[in-house]
Amino acid sequence: MKLFRLLLLLMVLVGAGLQGFSQSDYILVGSREYHVLDRLQMKLRTDSVLNFSDVKPFSRQAVVKRVEYINQLAAEGKISLSNADRYNIDLLLKESFEYRSHFAGKDTTMGLKDVFSKKSLTNPAYCGVKRGDFSIFATWHIDYSRGKDDQFQNQLYNNNRTFSIRGNLTKNIGYYSYLFEHQERDPLYVQQFVNKYSAVPGEGFYNLFKGDGYDVFNARGGIMFKAAKGIDVQFAYDKVFMGDGFRSLIMSDFSNNQLFLKINARIWKFNFHQLYSQLVSTHKVIGNYEYPKKYMAFHQLDFQANKWLNIGAFESVMFGRSNGFELSYLNPIIFYRAIERQEGSPDKVTIGLNIKANAFKNTQFYSQLILNEFHFEELKRYNKGSFVNKQAIQVGAKAIDVFGIRNLDVQAEMNIVRPFVYSHYDTVGSFTHYNQPLAHPLGANFKEYIGIIKYQPFNKLQLQAKVIYYKQGLDSAGYNFGGNIFRFYSEGRPPISATNLTQRTDGFQIGSGIPAKCLLASFAVSYEIIPNLFFDVSTVIRKYAQQGVADFDSKIYNIGLRLNIQKREFDF
Q: What's the gap between Cα 437 and its chain centre?
């Protein structure tokens, strides 16, 4: 923590001395705005600004500036927008109202009487004040739902109450804070996850509630500023998502919030991301004690090869030190693998590529490639299935206005992760955080196929159908086949033979171990009563089969209301 305090102090001092640069807060990962931006990316196709968009969350100010530009193009007839597009864009701009061009420099007061007036029928509800460079705006977020899982006797529920504030302290420093407090009783397969890993998906500390529910209190928040033209800095406790897919093989928002310092620099055709995080290592939830810490350093360089093709190369290192952060990893330019070897190779280094191409009208292709502990000799004998071959790949595509039907959007994605990817020879190096996977919720040793259809037939109605199918290899007879990333890859692998008990090094293919397969199909209907207030109805059918175990099939139904918040889903 001493390092982060020093870095924060340095950044604040630098930011406070700057003139002429303003900063905003960020759009929460998972918010509805991201689908709108996906559509606009593909409609413009050659917009080099929107194509730099694989690390979320996004700055509200940057998004508003670009969307206002797109609105201007639409007014000039240079881009075609549907009625639903115009409606979504209008709400996006109203959601981030303080950064709109006509609002700049204006003082305002938004009281509770404005929230409960007729304005709320067409505008998101906020109250607050802006005086000069200082501003504070507040709102609340509610998610109240009830449901039924045919595998579980008790009623499912989610009762989420959240309060948030955002604004600017000065022209150069922005801030935001969200306080979450909710109780939930989840489907039985989610409860099995919680019992296995002592972690509620996406959350941190929790208490049991009424025996089979969970009581969660959590928070997000941070400060941010522009250090210079094209350089943004964020110091926050929040979630990060890296990639353009439904899943991320680099870092997803599946686990708990993390403490991080994020620096983004855009120069010419290059966009450089740096992330320094403090994470919580695997731990037992027993009494009050300080959970073990570990750290991650990450950097990615995106290159806009042309206006429709973006290529990013990244490198990350997961590590722990008894005296805190390894200062050598603060160098944003140097290769982590070189530094790691100088330290005696104790840490887990990951390298890879992130690619996005708006190659055709209304169509986008994307991909991620992950390499752990690169061994060229083992790659040459790939079919042998060496446990040191730790690679993963994602390939996906998105298309909008399919068959000429406006706002009918589809997405297809495939994720393939070899055994032992994300695991290490200790808990510090494993790619986990707060007893949860930091990337894909399934861990490793699987093939997954995803199909998503989204349709907005008119402004206030949203339909979504989703199908996820995966095959995974699980541990057999206590032996480690590389699917559980919390186990050490150096221990528990099956022996070479009954007479030679030396651990196997070969024979680990995707699906090795006990085969398991799962089909998850869902359908959801959301009707927007007033801006950001949704009435939701959804159903989920989940069929899970594991060799040697009785099939586990679930039918889940939910109905609810939510305001200013994304829907709670468990897609695994």
A: 12
